[in-house]
Structure formats: C-alpha cells, structure tokens
Specification:
Length: 158
C-alpha cells in the first residue's frame, strides 16, 4: 500500500466539535492508555497497538479518540512509526459512516500543523479516496512498502 502526502497548510477548516451524535471526540489521556490499547488490540490487532502505544509517550499525547458511553469507538494518531507520519487510525463498525473518522483525521492533522509540521505523510494507506476527499492527500509514487520495508512479522503471518 502506498504512502500519501498532505499539505497541512491547505487543510479544510475543522469546526470546534467535541461531540457528534453522542460520540465524544478528544485527545486521549495517559490514564486511558491501557483501555485504548486493549480496544485497539481486540478490534485491529497487535500492529496498531504497538504504534499507538508510542503516541502515549509524546507530550502532548498524539492520539485522538472517539468514545461512546465511556468506551472507545475510534482513534487517530500521528508521530507513531515516524515523525511527520499520520496513523494509525480506525473506527468501530458501529460508528462508520457518521463522520467520526473524518473528524478524528482532521483533529490529528490540524494538531500536527499547530506543532510545526508543514506536511504529513499517511503511511501505507488503505482507503486512499477517503484521505483525498477529506484532506486533499495525494499518493506518493513508488512509496510502497516505504518505511515499512522489512517489518518483522509473527511466524504465523509469514
């Protein structure tokens, strides 16, 4: 999967949204780390747990979450695998199509801009159309596997 490039200085504006149809959207807090990582492990697997774990070591934490009824239903991170990289990001099936991913993406990208980045790289994208539509991201030619080249895998994954 290729990487994509986002011009952070040309992002669409984001409204000051903290809730969306009963879903709270905000920066994750350190005491929630184990709960967020457990949910990511259950929903998306080990790889995204490792990347997200790294974002809790940043100050401020570079992981944004969506919660519903005090449970995680979405997340978006940056500066996990590499500085200047957006991701990982995911949302629960129960909230897909409700704008949660779009808002989490824009929250993280605007935060990157506020922290001095001019561009962001979205590493190993799946839904390229989504990123282009929401953020204007473009595919970086010859970028697969990029920084993920030679990534270790469990023996059962090989």
């Amino acid at each position: 999967m290729p990487d994509m490039l986002v011009k952070l200085y040309a992002l669409p504006p984001i409204e000051n949204i903290s809730t969306l149809d009963g879903i709270e959207l905000r920066r994750a807090l350190a005491p929630e780390k184990h709960l967020v990582l457990r949910w990511i492990h259950t929903t998306f697997g080990d790889g995204w747990v490792s990347e997200t774990d790294a974002t809790f070591a940043r100050q401020p934490i570079s992981c944004f979450i969506a919660t519903q009824n005090n449970r995680p239903v979405g997340f978006a991170c940056y500066d996990a695998t590499m500085r200047g990289f957006f991701g990982p990001m995911g949302s629960d099936d129960s909230v897909r199509g409700r704008g949660v991913g779009k808002i989490l993406l824009l929250m993280a990208l605007h935060d990157m801009r506020a922290n001095g980045y001019g561009y962001a790289i979205i590493g190993g994208v799946g839904p390229a159309e989504f990123y282009t539509k929401v953020s204007g991201a473009v595919i970086i030619p010859d970028s697969s596997p990029g920084v993920y080249r030679g990534l270790l895998h469990e023996e059962s994954d090989v």
